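Example 5.3 — TetR family transcriptional regulator
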Amino acid sequence: MADDKAPSRQSRKRIATREAIIDAAEELLDRGGLDAVTLPAVSEKADVALQTIYNRVGTRDAVLLAVAERALAANREYMDAAYALPGSAEDRVTAAAAAYARFAFERPHQFRLLASPPDVPEALERIAELTAEQNGKLADAIRDGVADGSARADLDPDLTATLMWAAFNGVLSLTWRAGPRVDDIGRLLSLLASIVADGVRPRP
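Solution (predicted structure tokens):
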């Protein structure tokens, strides 16, 4: 007897078509950045009619939001794995910084989408939610450091987490923003991590 709750063939086809559209948009983003994600380009890449995109996903804003949702999920996997590692509070902060940098290097266009999102209210809101969620985890690690004496007692964990996130975002954004040429982002990030670590440790 068939499962009455199983999706119908038509429903499965709609879902598959929607996923194919988002796959196409994501591939266009990976190859050419945000400007490459146009509905005609997605239509051609996914081999579907423009009207099908509107029917299954929506406008370009809706397509970008769907791609941003995937970027959010990918970023969360990187960060959650880092925070789950054993070790001290400082170890977790260091692992989180390394994971964020790895996400930016391995998924540059997804990072750019999150660091400089399109002016789409829903996307901005979702990305703000992720930022608050991840900064909260970073603040908790800093708070643990304050509690065990490995971090300065006068630190505001929430403010410090926001500052660290902004600093790393700024350095990582040098890979695609106009400005001074940086030949070795990795060394720059290592220097930043070292300065941050020394700055949060208790003073003698």
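Remark. The chain has a mean pLDDT of 88.
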